[in-house]
Amino acid sequence: MEKLIEQFSFGLFFWQLLLFVGLLLLLRKYAWKPILGAVEKREEGIKDALEAAEAAKKEMQNVTADSEKLLKEAKAERDVLLKEAREIKESIIAEAKEQAQIEGDKVIKQAQATIEAEKKAAVADIKAQVANLSVEIAEKVIKEELSNKDKQLKLVDDMLGDIKLN
Amino acid sequence: MRYSFISKKLVAVTLLITGFVSAQGHEGEEVETGAHDLKTQIKEYIDHHLLDSHDFTLYSYTTDQGEHKYIGFPLPVILWDNGLKVFSSAQLEHGEGVAEAGGNYYALYHNKIYKTDAEGTINFGGHHGEETHSEDAFGENLVVDDSHPTNEKPLDFSITKNVVFIMLVGLLMFLMFRGVANNYKKNSLPKGVGRVLEPLVLFVRDEIAIPNIGEHKYKKYMSYLLTVFFFVWIINLLGLTPLGVNVTNNIAVTFALALITYLITTFSGNKNYWKHIFWMPGVPAPMKIILAPIELLGTFIKPFSLMIRLYANITAGHVVLMSIIGLMFIFKNWIGSPLSFVLAFALSLLELLVAALQAYIFTMLSALYFGMAVEEDHH
Q1: Which residues are in coiled coils (chain B) (predicted)?
Q2: CA separation (Å) from B12 to A81, B5, B8, B334?
Q3: How many A-B residue pairs are in contact by the CB < 8 A criterion?
């Protein structure tokens, strides 16, 4: 201890104190404040960036969820629309079929009526023609039969024979 | 020759085993005395190294004519002795001459400047009022260990070797950190030396300042903590270079640093801090009265321990390292010298760690004391 006090150099103490305090003040102004300031600013920036990234991630997740929801809704709507369309189609087809059936029946009936009328007319016509033909044939046969005397007599005999039988 | 070599080796090995490597008995009495002189010389050299110096000497040797030669340059000597006296340390001739300034004469004795007469006489007083005797200032005669010079000591404000290195480290730190700071103006990421320094700055902030002082109050202490951390570390590292610098093993330097820590602690102490010193809460009243002087003394002991710790660690490192290096010259054999070289190398590595560790501890404890001073009442 005595040696320490003996060794103590006031001059060195003075210079150390003076130079150190001077260095401290200089460094504070020209080095520590700018360095710490810059580092803090950077750390702040990094923190902000990380937070922003986190927020963006969350936003992204929200957006994905939203779009999925939208997609689901759209699908459901499409299904409903398709179902409706199918029902409409089926009802239209059924209606058309019914209409066609009715229309067809009507046409068929008309056709049948027409055919019936035509047939009747044809039958009447044929009857008339057959009567005429029969008369003409009978006329010609009679004319042929009664062209000579023998034949006329024979006819009278035959006829008389028939009557006898009866 | 060969035989002598082998025998030396054998003897050395035997002696190493028995633990008396340096005693090479077979070489005779003369060597024994020589080794003893060498030991004294090394001891003196170490003592000399631990002291501050008024010259910047890189290397010195003695010529065959017994003349001391010094390689280096002189530094200005500034004295306050009824007026400012300034002269070059070259006039002191490394303690071998007498400098004359303003009608007064000054001479160096054990690296301290004393006021002398024109012949440079240093008077010695005995320890307990023993008879006063004079010695030649040039140190030719042996000096009784207990005696101190009774000559008047002028106030010495000289730019000594240590002051030069304090200035150099200050300049280096200023240039280095201002460069780093300027770099941030251009881009937000560190470049060059900043890549190494920024993590250290952040280390001081995140591992020393914030845990000890607290998130909200650490900012105003950062400048001091950073400055003291880098100053002590760099100057400790310089002490390990062959330049022969030893700033932090001067009690004056560590005292100045500890004083600043003490002043900052005392002036930033809040109500809670002083209350814990003078009227410790939570203990009975008689205990409060007993604790007050102890706590008050504690405020001085804390920075005092800072001062002694730094001083003692660095001084011990220098003494042990130089002693082991000195052993090489004492051994002068195949086993001892390489062994002490390896030991010195290992110790140098350890000292590298100590250099950083002491800077860390000084800064950490300073931060701890600041933290105590600004701590808020939790009760």
Answers
A1: none
A2: 108, 10, 6, 8
A3: 122
Q: B103 to each of A10, B106, B108, how far by Cα in Å?
A: 24, 10, 17
Number of domains chain B is built from: 2
Tell me the C-alpha distance between A5 and B108, whole Å: 18
Q: Which amino acid is at B158?
A: S
Name the minimum distance, in Å, from the CA of A45 to any CA of chain B. Answer: 10
Q: Do B202 and A22 touch (CB under 8 A)?
A: no
| B257 and B123 share one domain | no
Q: How is residue B90 written in tokens?
A: 């070259």
- Cα separation, B308 vs B254, whole angstroms: 8
What is the span of the domain harbouring residue B116?
69-158
Task: Evaluate whether residue B206 is within a structural domain.
Answer: yes
Q: How many CB atoms lie within 10 A of CB B281?
A: 10
Task: Answer yes or no: do B188 and A45 touch at CB < 8 A.
Answer: yes
Tokens 């059924």: give the residue.
A94
Q: Is residue B307 situated within a structural domain?
A: yes
ipTM rounded to 2 decimals: 0.78
- Shortest distance between the Cα of B347 and any Cα of chain A, in A, equals 25
Q: How many domains does chain A have?
A: 1
- Rounded to the nearest 10 degrees, how much is the dihedral formed by the CA atoms of B345, B349, B354, B360? 160
Can you give B196-209 as a three-state secondary structure string?
HHHHHHHHHHHHHH
The CA–CA distances, whole Å, from A134 to A122, A128, A152, B88 equal 18, 10, 21, 181
B 236-295 residues inside an 8 A Cβ radius of A? 250-253, 255-257, 259-260
- With an 8 Å Cβ cutoff, is A15 touching chain B? yes
Task: Record the tokens describing residue A12, joined without a space.
Answer: 């060195």
| 87-116 of B, contacting A, C-beta below 8 A | 112
Of the candidates B190, B223, B213, B252, the residue with the CA atom closest to the CA atom of residue B50: B252
Segment (H or E) for B339: helix B336-374
Tell me: do B226 and B123 sit in the same domain.
no
**Spatial CA neighbour of B305 closest among B346, B250, B254:** B254
Closest partner CB to A9 (pick from B148, B250, B260): B250
Residue found by looking up tokens 């405020």 in the block: B299
pLDDT in tens, chain B (379 residues): 444 544 555 444 444 443 333 333 333 344 445 556 777 888 887 877 777 788 787 777 777 777 777 777 788 888 887 778 888 877 777 777 777 777 778 887 777 788 777 777 777 764 444 444 444 444 444 444 445 677 777 888 888 888 999 999 999 999 999 988 888 888 778 888 888 899 999 999 999 999 999 888 898 899 999 999 999 999 999 888 877 778 888 889 999 999 999 999 999 888 888 888 888 888 888 888 888 888 889 999 999 999 999 999 998 988 888 888 888 888 777 887 888 888 889 999 999 999 999 999 999 999 999 999 988 876 5
